[in-house]
Design a protein that fits this description.
alpha/beta, eight-stranded parallel beta sheet, 9 helices
Length: 263
């Protein structure tokens, strides 16, 4: 079995911690992972690119401005993002998008920053990693996200940590996007998401951890890490009625094709 974690984060950059996590990932059957770089505040872009540079054979990097931090991004930060994403070792723009659950940034600011990153991905010819999370009060985020992607002419990218229903899945798939599934699909009371997984073609799916968050069953409540993506792949296999080896084969090919790495 050869798996790819299509979306992960590391909260520490020290080599002992990272090396141990990657060793466990390899032992679990992973052959690659996509590490997502995020804007942390003016002039601070976190540790993802540093970690990826130390492990180029196993980690592929992206960089973007998360909707939580959208209101803090300055023009200088957007210029830095464009310069950095233009480098060949950065394989995608994002994660970028809409988060109406926490609303750490005002919705109009989130929408504008999302549009700017859509335009950047188009200019650079790189895929877009999209974050979208609904409010507990209503379902605005998915329709608005779809509308922005459509208006900006976006057709290449992934809806990471997809947690929507079948109709949301249909809309994103119709745009040309892939769906990446996290450990949430293993949780109880996620029937709508599980129905969407049954609906979506396997050749449009990827699996991820979003580590260090959202550890799958049976690790829920623990710190997540790339090796745990195996549990998500097992759940997807169950829902699709195929072997986990088949899920690994297809989702790995999907990730490699989208992000442009070889395994």
């Amino acid at each position: 079995m050869r798996l790819v974690d299509s979306h992960c984060h590391f909260d520490r950059a020290d080599s002992e911690y990272v090396n141990a996590a990657l060793e466990r990932a390899r032992a679990a059957g992973l052959v690659h992972a996509v590490i997502v770089g995020q804007f942390q505040g003016p002039g601070d872009w976190g540790i993802a690119l540093e970690v990826a540079a130390a492990h180029p054979e196993f980690l592929t990097a992206t960089l973007g401005i998360h909707p939580h931090e959208a209101a803090r991004a300055t023009q200088a930060d957007f210029e830095h993002l464009e310069r950095t994403c233009a480098r060949p070792e950065i394989h995608a723009v994002g994660e970028a998008g809409l988060d109406y659950y926490y609303e750490h940034s005002a919705r109009d600011v989130q929408r504008e920053v999302f549009r700017r990153q859509c335009a950047l991905a188009k200019r650079l010819g790189k895929p877009l990693v999209v974050h979208v999370r609904e409010s507990t009060k209503g379902g605005d985020a998915h329709p608005e996200c779809e509308a922005i992607l459509k208006e900006e002419g976006m057709s290449r990218g992934v809806i990471h940590c997809f947690t929507g229903d079948t109709e949301a899945a249909r809309r994103y798939l119709d745009l040309g996007f892939l769906l990446s599934l996290s450990g949430v699909v293993t949780y109880k009371k996620t029937e709508a998401l599980q129905d969407a997984v049954r609906f979506a073609p396997l050749d449009r799916l990827m699996v991820e951890t979003d580590s260090p968050y959202l550890a799958p069953i049976p690790y829920r409540g623990k710190k997540n890490e790339p090796s745990y993506v195996v549990e998500t792949a097992k759940k997807v296999a169950e829902l699709k009625g195929v072997t986990v080896e088949r899920v690994a084969e297809v989702t790995t090919a999907n990730a490699a094709a989208l992000f442009g790495f070889t395994v």
